[in-house]
Amino acid sequence: ADGGSAHGPDLFHLVAAGAWLGELGPLHLLLRAASRPGGADARPYAVLAARRFSRIAFLVMLTLLATGLWNAWEQLGDIPSLLGTRYGWLLLLKIALLAPILGLAAVNRSRLVPALPGDAETVGRPAMARLARFVAAEWLLALAILAVVAVLGATPPGKHVAPWWPLSF
Q1: How far apart are alpha carbons 23 and 52 in whole angstroms?
Q2: What is the DSSP string of 22-42?
Q3: pTM (two decimals)
Q4: What does the alpha-carbon distance between residue 10 and residue 71 come to, in Å, rounded to a whole number?
Q5: What is 46-87 written as a DSSP string?
Q6: What pLDDT digit, counting tens, does each position of 36-72 carry?
Q7: 166 and 88 in contact (C-beta within 8 Å)?
Q8: Rounded to whole angstroms, what are the CA distances from 169 to 92, 160, 161, 165?
């Protein structure tokens, strides 16, 4: 980032991403253990952790989206830089990886987390097992985003490169 105005959003983006990504792995392990028949002791903790994570993750995603938009504007500056530079293409890939994460998160928040305290055999444990799989999928997608971010960090920002513009307008 160039200029002092981008350092704040960069820092918030980094802290939010770290908080979210750092919680996904342990949450997955807890949910997976609690979803098994022998994991009844872990189940109340898993329900509590999933509820808390759901609230925190919502705020984290809002922060990531807001700071991501700001950072993208700072690094691109215009639509041709988004569509016509390597940096822009990598950013679009990052967004494409984020879209299914947001979809999974919506299902988790609206359907699975509310079902966790239900009857263990018919509702709670199956919802917990499904939530554990969805959290694992979010985690894998987030790791893919980290790989894209690593390449983005070594790529000149779009506003510093002449875009290749294939469109007629």
Answers
A1: 11
A2: HHHHHHHHHHHHHTSGGGTTT
A3: 0.86
A4: 7
A5: HHHHHHHHHHHHHHHHHHHHHHHHHHHHHHH-SHHHHHHSHH
A6: 989 889 999 999 999 999 999 999 999 999 999 999 9
A7: no
A8: 20, 21, 19, 9
